[in-house]
Give the backbone structure.
Amino acid sequence: MNFKDQTILITGGAQGIGLSLSKKFCSIGANVIIADKDRQTPDIADRIGVFGYVCDVTIEQEINDFITFAEEKFGQVDCFISNAGMIFVDPSHVASASNTNWELSWRLHVMQHVFAARRLLPGMLKRKYGYLVNTASAAGLLYQIGDAPYSASKAAAISFSEGISISHGDDGIRSSVICPQYVASNLLGFNDPSEAKDIDGLLTPDTVAEKVIESMAREEFLILPHPAVKKYLINKVSDYERWLNGMRKLKKKSIAQRGSAKPTDILHLI
Ligand SMILES: NC(=O)c1ccc[n+]([C@@H]2O[C@H](COP(=O)([O-])OP(=O)(O)OC[C@H]3O[C@@H](n4cnc5c(N)ncnc54)[C@H](O)[C@@H]3O)[C@@H](O)[C@H]2O)c1
């Protein structure tokens, strides 16, 4: 796909991967509109030469209003990158996160994608043209030790993305699911992406955005900015018991070396 003059909407665009994607798409001539719950979004958008919209993507009406805002600016939406997300650390055992966090994780990491697709698909199907992209995570393909709501909802996001491709791939609808491993963004407590160079396997949001845009240009469904994830996934499906055992060992190693096994500990051990 050639992105010049395409209208691309990106949620979670005020920082991190979403902001990097927005800058890069803008630099190659796309019409970009970002949405984020951050009140500074219009100013951030202004600084990088795109449009900004403040909304909460867990609320269907707010996604609908964001898309209407974009259509009023540019006409039809060609591509929607549903990217906003956050992590939830398990307070203790695997079911210990509050119902509030489980429900928020579901709405943010699954229903956000459903709401966007529900609003956009009728027009895209009529035009036989459109690209729906969901940012999930390697945590959805594998598992994020220490964050059950995140892992389970990201796995569901991958399944819904597969559904888009299977149900509508022959109707002119392109789809991708982005599954990064660790990225030096605020989500993991990195204020400065350059800290990525000190930690093996950690990518900057800019590097992830570059790889995503290359993969999207080739219209690849499964986008893995970290090549090692493919190897881990093959290991998982080829011997599930061995993979589970390896994940338990990784958890033990994290507790032994770092005193806990939160997502922000595990990223130092991969
Ligand atoms: N950072 C990582 O290591 C990593 C790894 C795999 C996947 N991801 C995924 O990549 C995506 C982007 O993450 P990031 O690392 O850039 O994080 P980030 O925290 O830098 O950016 C996420 C953005 O989403 C916005 N957001 C969160 N909830 C929202 C809501 N309800 N409505 C509107 N906006 C909301 C935040 O305000 C923020 O600007 C997320 O879906 C995340 O799960 C991140």
